[in-house]
């Protein structure tokens, strides 16, 4: 029988497990502490549970932690890890150390349904949703996990398309029984889905990043088919209903494509679209992917674009591009791995 993983269970799920096994109710908190505070890899290490209870737990459950199967190191210290998530499926988690912070970019799905034109993960198509266990294991089994200061849900997949499992993982990261991180350390990035956006804003306090890439609905639709189902103007209308002026940060991601969305008229449209929202814009360098007729704008153009927006009152940064020698684009390592397996 396949054992169920405990890693990735919320406190209320652990309470159901201990109730089902006839263990004292306080053992749920003890198990949570072993999983999320002491970060053990086996039930045998949970030594404040009686031997009898550990044996009972082991019959049907396991911690469910597993190490990455591959890693690629960049000359700038960025490491891209590959985790196996089921038969022939792999996802990436990218560790990005910086002067005063260390960020992990976490995946939420194997592949993605959204088919954005510029994205390697989109080209893979969709294979599976990750469970909360598979999302959290990217952190739990990371060799550098004790150095982490931030997590961004910006790896493979669209997190709002797998919201139940993503919300469980975010709860565990931020709850006192879990990692007890401030929600300010966690950012979820999304194209914006009608079904999930409102729920995420209301059920989580984590930062929100919306992938924008064009202020013009017709152009955005060309780049990102998800625009057809929930347009950027509807997304912005919804965001106006919430307060992002305090602890919680709202940002918009904007890949600057050469000759596509990199001139003053686009900057003006952006200012118009985002007027009145407490937000910032992050300009992103495009990582070229094979077979796509898009190119990244040069740095001078990006700086001019940033300065125009900032000087008109919209705070804008240029995201440092890290791990370019290993990165190319999110989804490349897992695509290569899946491709190699298919050939075997
Ligand atoms: C891979 S997505 C995952 C999160 C979510 N699905 C989204 O689109 O926001 C994270 C960010 O990477 C960006 N991205 C995707 N492909 C890229 C590429 N080839 N170069 C630069 N950024 C890319 C996306 O637009 C998004 O802002
Ligand atoms: S950019 Fe995000 S939503 Fe679009 S295909 Fe890639 S992972 Fe999916």
From TrEMBL:
rRNA processing among keywords:
yes
Task: State the UniProt keywords alphabetically.
Answer: 4Fe-4S, Cytoplasm, Disulfide bond, Iron, Iron-sulfur, Metal-binding, Methyltransferase, rRNA processing, S-adenosyl-L-methionine, Transferase, tRNA processing
- In terms of one coarse class, where is the protein primarily found? cytoplasm
Gene Ontology molecular function: any one: rRNA binding
Cofactors per UniProt? [4Fe-4S] cluster
Family annotation (InterPro entries): Aldolase_TIM, Methyltransferase_A, RlmN_N, RNA_MTrfase_RlmN, rRNA_lsu_MTrfase_RlmN/Cfr, rSAM, rSAM_sf
Q: Which residues bind [4Fe-4S] cluster?
A: 112, 116, 119
Look up the EC number in the record and give it: 2.1.1.192
Binding residue positions for S-adenosyl-L-methionine:
157-158, 189, 211-213, 287
What reaction(s) does this enzyme catalyze? Answer: adenosine(2503) in 23S rRNA + 2 reduced [2Fe-2S]-[ferredoxin] + 2 S-adenosyl-L-methionine = 2-methyladenosine(2503) in 23S rRNA + 5'-deoxyadenosine + L-methionine + 2 oxidized [2Fe-2S]-[ferredoxin] + S-adenosyl-L-homocysteine; adenosine(37) in tRNA + 2 reduced [2Fe-2S]-[ferredoxin] + 2 S-adenosyl-L-methionine = 2-methyladenosine(37) in tRNA + 5'-deoxyadenosine + L-methionine + 2 oxidized [2Fe-2S]-[ferredoxin] + S-adenosyl-L-homocysteine
Q: Where in the cell is it found?
A: Cytoplasm
**Protein name in the entry:** Probable dual-specificity RNA methyltransferase RlmN
- Protein species of origin: Caecibacteroides pullorum
